[in-house]
Every structure is written in structure tokens, then in C-alpha cells.
């Protein structure tokens, strides 16, 4: 069966299951098993995918980071620090709409896998008392968290891409900065219009927000940032150290949270099941050779080189749902074709992120939907429209200004 027909049918399987209210993780895994049945059907590849998933350090780093992100959220929420921090932010930024967009965007600068799970309760807290649907809130949290994907010097995908293509991070950021500005504008157009919010802070907890609340909530984020970026510590270890350190800090501040509630409350079985299914799906793409076959088929296309690179980046971004995935596969091609080419590197990165933003394999999308209990399709619909315009605009500008 042609590889693109296999992928199209697998996506159809996934969509049908999601429409029938299947959990996201099992629906994605079902699509992966469909691909395995069509393209391989050997027990060896199935076992190889399982072995790779279980033994990969990245899998455990992802699961550990996600677990400790939830632990930190519980610490801050149950200690009333989260509500106080939101209240303080709303004193500085009276507009709730601006605050709802700014907070996930700010936290998106932190290269934490699944970090949308940390910004989600902040968005929910800001929206408290407002008539805003859960699908819209989920879309706001997901979209604005990723507007700096091609304009932040600490995003792992950006760093890896520049190292492979041999361009400076600063040069690539300058080249792509306008895309982040456009991303914010499109997100505002499709997600922040059509509803009104009250100007006042709203809840009693929000009104009493102080600078101490803000510091207690943001210092842990800054510490994780320092551990990951400066000390080069893994995401799970960084988050774990910060969570442990916050236990005595909160107790000293008179806001202690029972340790049992923190570490047992973070055991969200459904969430970790879905993440495990996504990781196994990616393992199946590699073990069955589908990912390699997809790239090879696109490389043999008669399309112009930039179009082929953009298509490969987009497809791989959709299949893997992570920036390191499409960067690791596509950027070596860019380096081989034209090392140091900002235009080609930028095209690959933007279209890779575009694919990553439109797929249920993206962990941030999955954890956001899980938190808000929103509908997958209704959450993603405005993001699809915004991303289509972003990619269309970037493609047109690239065509008109190609060096």
C-alpha cells in the first residue's frame, strides 16, 4: 500500500475514534497499530517499538517532568499561591484577556516538556467568574504557549536546528521574529475576540494577590529555567528538585501543603496512559520504517526543494508532535543541501512547528484538553485556522524574498 494512503487511513482511524469519544492516547495508538498492520505485521517491530519506548531516557524524562509539573501545580494551587499570583498579575495587567494570553506565552519560554499543564490552571484562574467556554480556554492555553517556538534562544528545537545547519541562534531568531508577532496576532484574532471580560480582578483571592504570591509562583519557574539552561540538568530532575525544595519553602511561608497530597495527587493515571500511548505510537513509526519511507517518498518528489523541505517538516511535525523530532530528521537535509542557509532553515522550522501544532501527538495539546476537559476538535478548530494563515503568510513571504 502506498505510504501516504496508509497514513491517510491511519489518520481517518484516529479521527473516527476521537469522534466516538475514545480517549486521545488509545485513539493514537490504534492508528499506530493500523500502520503496523498495513506496513509490517512482524512481532519483532512491535517488540522493538515497545522496547524503545520503555528504555528511551527521553520517555522517562518526559513522564518524570510531566509528573513533577503536576506536583508543582498542586503545591501552588493548594497553598493559594497560584490564586494570589493571578491576583497580583491582574493588578499589573488590568485586562484579563491580555493576562490570559501573556501568562502561557511567558511560561512557554520555559523549555519544559508538557509545560502547558502548568499554565492551564493559571489561565483557568484568570478566567474565573467569566463566561468563557472550556474549549476556548483550552485553545488559548495551547496556542499562546507556543508563539515563541521560533523566537526563543532556549527552545531545544531552535538550539538543535542552529547547531545542525550551522547558523547562529541570534540570526535565525531575527529572521523569524516576525512570525512570532504574527502568531500572537492570529491567536488574538481567533481566540480572544467575540467575548467580553470584567476589568476587575473578580474573586476575593485574586483581589488579595501580593508580590510575595508572585515571587513564590515565579521563582520555581526561574529555578527550573536555570537548572535546565545553565546547569544543563534534565527536565525531570530539574522539576523534581524544585518541587522538593518548595515543600519547606511553602511551609516556612506559612502555606504548607501535605506531602501526601502533592505526590499522590499528581498520579493522574489517564494522563500518563495517554502520554505512554503517544510515545509507543512514535516508536511504531520508527520500528516499521514508516517515518523513513515517508521522508524518502517526499525526497523523490518533483516539487522544488523548498516545497519538499516544508512538506517533510510539516508531515514529520504532525507524526512526532515534538520539535526535536522534525528538527532531527529535516535539518540534516537542510545542512546537506545548503549549510548556513537561513531561508531554508527558517522554512523547515516554521513548517515543522506548524505540523506539531495540529496533531494529537503533541503532548501540550493532549494535557491541555485533559485539564480543561474540552472537546478535541472544537479546541483545535481555531488553532487550525490561525496556523493555516500563519503558514500561508510565511510561505508567501519566503517565496517573494528568497535570497
Short description:
The chain is mainly α. The protein is 76% helix and 0% strand.
Strands, helices and their partners?
Elements: H1 3-19, H2 24-39, H3 43-55, H4 57-78, H5 81-92, H6 96-107, H7 116-126, H8 134-145, H9 156-165, H10 169-191, H11 204-207, H12 211-230, H13 235-252, H14 259-265, H15 269-287, H16 290-299, H17 305-320, H18 323-337, H19 342-356, H20 363-372, H21 376-401
Would you kindly provide a written description of the structure presented here, covering whatever features stand out?
The radius of gyration is 21 Å and the shape is globular. The protein is mostly helical and 403 residues long. Helix 10 packs parallel to helix 19 (342-356) and helix 17 packs parallel to helix 19. The chain has helices spanning 3-19, 24-39, 43-55, 57-78, 81-92, 96-107, 116-126, 134-145, 156-165, 169-191, 204-207, 211-230, 235-252, 259-265, 269-287, 290-299, 305-320, 323-337, 342-356, 363-372, 376-401. It contains 21 helices and no strands.
Distance between the termini: 39 Å
- The structural class is mainly alpha
Main sheet attributes: strand count, strand direction, barrel closure: none
Rg (CA only)? 21 Å
- H-E string: HHHHHHHHHHHHHHHHHHHHH
Helical percentage: over 70%
Strand segment tally? 0
Q: Estimate what percentage of residues fall within beta strands.
A: under 5%
Tell me which oligomeric state these chains represent: single chain
Shape call: globular
Amino acid at each position: 500500500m502506498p505510504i501516504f494512503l496508509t497514513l491517510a487511513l491511519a489518520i481517518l482511524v484516529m479521527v473516527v475514534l476521537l469522534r466516538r469519544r475514545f480517549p486521545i492516547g488509545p485513539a493514537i495508538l490504534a492508528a499506530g497499530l493500523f500502520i503496523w498492520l498495513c506496513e509490517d505485521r512482524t512481532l519483532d517491530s512491535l517488540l522493538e517499538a515497545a522496547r524503545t519506548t520503555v528504555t528511551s531516557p527521553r520517555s522517562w524524562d518526559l513522564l518524570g517532568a510531566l509528573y513533577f509539573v503536576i506536583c508543582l501545580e498542586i503545591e501552588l494551587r493548594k497553598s493559594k499561591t497560584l490564586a494570589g499570583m493571578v491576583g497580583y498579575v491582574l493588578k499589573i495587567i488590568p485586562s484579563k484577556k491580555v493576562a490570559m494570553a501573556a501568562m502561557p506565552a511567558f511560561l512557554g519560554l520555559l523549555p519544559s516538556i508538557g509545560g502547558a499543564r502548568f499554565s492551564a490552571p493559571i489561565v483557568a484562574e484568570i478566567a474565573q467568574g467569566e463566561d468563557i467556554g472550556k474549549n476556548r480556554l483550552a485553545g488559548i492555553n495551547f496556542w499562546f504557549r507556543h508563539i515563541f517556538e521560533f523566537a526563543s534562544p532556549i527552545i531545544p528545537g531552535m538550539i538543535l536546528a542552529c547547531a545542525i545547519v550551522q547558523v547562529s541562534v541570534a540570526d535565525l531568531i531575527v529572521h523569524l521574529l516576525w512570525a512570532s508577532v504574527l502568531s500572537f496576532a492570529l491567536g488574538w484574532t481567533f481566540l480572544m475576540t467575540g467575548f467580553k471580560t470584567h476589568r476587575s480582578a473578580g474573586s476575593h483571592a485574586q483581589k488579595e494577590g501580593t508580590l510575595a504570591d508572585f515571587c513564590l509562583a515565579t521563582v520555581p519557574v526561574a529555578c527550573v529555567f536555570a537548572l535546565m539552561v545553565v546547569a544543563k540538568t534534565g527536565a525531570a530532575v530539574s522539576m523534581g528538585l524544585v518541587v522538593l525544595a518548595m515543600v519547606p519553602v511553602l511551609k516556612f511561608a506559612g502555606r504548607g501543603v501535605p506531602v501526601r497530597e502533592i505526590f499522590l495527587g499528581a498520579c493522574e493515571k489517564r494522563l500518563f496512559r495517554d502520554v505512554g500511548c503517544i510515545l509507543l505510537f512514535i516508536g511504531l513509526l520508527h520500528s516499521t520504517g514508516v517515518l523513513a519511507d515517508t521522508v524518502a517518498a517526499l525526497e523523490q518528489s518533483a516539487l522544488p526543494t523548498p516545497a519538499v523541505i516544508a512538506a517533510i517538516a510539516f508531515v514529520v511535525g504532525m507524526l512526532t508532535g515534538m520539535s526535536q523530532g522534525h528538527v532531527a530528521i529535516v535539518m540534516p537535509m537542510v545542512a546537506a543541501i545548503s549549510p548556513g542557509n537561513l531561508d531554508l532553515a527558517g522554512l523547515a522550522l516554521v513548517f515543522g512547528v506548524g505540523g506539531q501544532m495540529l496533531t494529537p501527538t503533541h503532548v501540550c495539546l493532549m494535557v491541555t484538553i485533559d485539564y480543561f476537559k474540552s472537546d478535541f476538535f472544537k479546541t483545535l478548530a481555531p488553532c487550525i485556522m490561525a496556523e493555516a494563515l500563519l503558514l500561508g503568510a510565511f510561505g508567501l513571504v519566503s517565496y517573494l524574498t528568497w535570497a
